[in-house]
Structure formats: structure tokens, C-alpha cells
Design goal:
By secondary structure, the protein is α+β, with helices and mostly antiparallel strands. The protein has 8 helices and 23 strands. The chain has helices at residues 152-165, 189-202, 220-223, 235-245, 297-308, 334-337, 339-351, 373-376, and strands at residues 7-11, 15-16, 45-50, 55-62, 68-73, 82-89, 95-103, 110-116, 122-129, 139-144, 169-172, 214-216, 256-258, 264-268, 271-275, 314-317, 356-360, 366-371, 380-384, 402-406, 411-419, 422-430, 436-446. It has an 8-stranded mixed beta sheet. The longest helix has 14 residues, at 152-165.
Length: 448
Amino acid sequence: MRRDFLKSVLAGTAAWIAAPREAIGRETALRGPSPGPENPDFIPILQGATTPTTAQFSLLVLDDPRIRLEIAYVDGSPAFPSIRLSHARHDGSRWIAIRAKVTGLEPGRDAVLRVFDAGGKLLDSRVFATLKDVAPAALRFVVASCMNDAMIDDAKSMWEALETARPDYLFLTGDSVYVDSGPWSIIDGKRIWRRYVETRMALGLYRWKRLVPTIVTWDDHDFGKNDKDSRWGMKDVSRAVFDAMYAQDATDDGLVSEGPGIARGVSVYGHRFLLTDGRSFRSGRWAREKNETFWGVEQDRWMDDVLRSSDQPLWLMNGTQFFGGYRGGLTWSFEGNHAHRFRDFIDRMRRIEAPVILCSGDVHFSEVQEIEPEIFGYGTYEITSSAMHSFTRSLPEGSARRMAATNFYNFCLIEATAAGREVGFDVTCVGAGGREHFKLRDLVVGRR
């Protein structure tokens, strides 16, 4: 559930939002440069969870939150959706986060979202679409992680390449914001808020003229600090900022669901996606006891419920690698750092009827590993997509499971077709300028 500082306002097709009465925290002043231009020529906008009849959006505005949103179809026909708005800000910040939940849209229609100020001036406009009634032959989605805004020159070409790819859905699996990047030593609520704002002002994703439905989970850097886990003292503040900045509430049709922490489940065109919260409930890095936790008991139960609800294929996404133990004990991975829970996870996957494909990030290189049938009872893959733009590392020697890998900036584009209990897909690892670092075709995962 959303925190008490998020206030909702109900309206019709054109929606106004009033000045916020509540703020997130009252921490000490943040040292550092001002967050982006004081009077930007655009509104940072991200399309969030989207279904055939609903679309959610997150926006940032300066100072006066009394904006008006209007929606019209591109072909000129009238639109009569309902728009629900909520807002939040951090005490002392000029930046206000606004989330819009739009319902009553027609499936698959191209529409325009327009943003006006209190005086009727057009501030920004973007094209978007809901999902279609009929599933496409192949769902095109992107998995990406690790987006350090310090690499701004490289970031520009990468987001241009992703925009050109035109996926149906975008999944960000962690480190979308580097809260702990910068010259400051104190990480408090004001800094966390500020770093989210700075990232939105810097990255091309928030300027796209045609928006793409996006679902986000976090890893350590957007959680608040490198390698932090459930003992992180600012985790509740980090959660509050995350919730304010991303528009991915559960939907009435059940196609988008909320789990413990920031975990989300999404159903899109016959495919199921589950994005875990791999930080909020995790025990220490070197937890070797039988009572160690990775996702936590409550999240494990929620995941089991989602997995058992259907035998359709499911894409299981986590910030940290699953099968990363081959890299040794000094690096994060589920396998390497929480061995007891990892064995439990494998046992659970063997009992689940739905075939599962694994997706992860974090490591600043991308690879596809082929997981042998002896592990889950059927052959599957782990697709690690990292880094979109962040500090690069030399490509580590791979395990015998590695099929392809790169340590250049990249994202992974997956084109997948589901049929019953089986899914077939291609994976293309894309870099700046649309360069293909590797491509794997005709991968198949299913249970018989």
C-alpha cells in the first residue's frame, strides 16, 4: 500500500492537482549541486503499468503542482477516461512527483497526454498507447539495468538506441538511480529524493516523445547504498521515494499486482512477469545460517501463489544474478551469498508447473546462461542484462553455462511467443547505435 504522504485527487478527463499538504521527511540539508536546470523545457514523464484499458504515468513538476492533464486520441476522436492523481514532495525540495492513473481507455489506441499549467499553458505532450485486445505474434520487451547518470554522454546514445527499438514493454531490474553516486557522504531522505530527480532530468528515457509502458524494481544503488540489505536504516525512506516516483499500482483487472515491498506481478499478452524486491528483506551478505533470508518469508509465499496461479510461462526478474556463484564469493549473487535459500528456491521451482525463465542485472556485463534440465526439471535460461550505462568491468571468465556475453554498454531485447506451457524467444543484446553485441535465436522453455 502507498504511504500516507501520497494524497489522491479524483477528477474526469481533465484533471487538476492541488498543492501538497504533506512532505517526505525533514532531514538535514543536502550538500551538492542543484538538480538539473532550474527551468527545464520539458516535463520528465514515464509511462508506468499499462493494460488494455488503463495507463499510469509519473511526472515531475517545479514549485506549483496545479497542473491539468488532458488525453485525446491521435486520430482526433474524443476520449473520456477518468484520471486519478496523487502527489508527493520532499520537504525543502522544489520538485513535486505526480502520479496519474488513467482508466476507461480504449484498447490499443494511440493517444496524446498533454500537460498544462494553472494558466492553461501547454508544458509538454507525449504519445502513448494502451495494450491491444489481441496478443501480437511476438511480444517485444526489453530488460535493462545499471543506469549511472554520471555517464551522461554514453547514456544519450544508449537511450536513443532503446527508443529506436520500440519495445512493447520495458522492465528495469535495478540501479535505475545511483543514490550513492556523488561527492556527499550523508545519505538521508533529501539526498535520495534529489538523486531520483537528478536522474530524471538527465536521462533520455524521460524525454521520449512516444512513451513505453515501464515496470521497475530496484537493486542496491536505487535502494540507497552499495550492497545494502534489510538492515539498511534508510530503507523505509527509500521505499517512500520509490513509490512516489513510479506509477505501477495494482489494477482492478488483476493484470498488475503488488507484492511485499516493491515487488510486482504483470500479465502481458499471455506472458507473466514477476519482478522481485531483492533488497528489503535480504539478510546479510555472508548469511550462511539456515534462517537466512533472500526474498523473505512473506515474499516467498506471494511468489509461490503467483507461480501456482497458472501453468503459463513466467519471466522471473531480480536485481541480483541467480546463477552467479561461478564468479566467486566476493560478488553478489543468490547462489553465492545465500546458499541455503538458493537450494530451497531450486526445490520450489522443481515443484511448480509453470516454466520459469530468469532475468537479472547488477554485474555490469550481460550474458545468457543455459540452465541444464537437471536443475529445475526442464531446461531454461538466465538472461543477465547490465549495464545500460555505468562503470564497465572486464568480462569475467564464464561458467560452462554461458552461451554469449559482452561488457559493452547494452540492453537485452527479447522477442517471445507463448503457446500454452511453452515459450519460444530470441535474445538480442543491443548497444549504442543499435549495434548487436550478440543474438541468440530459437530458444525454447517449456514443461511437458
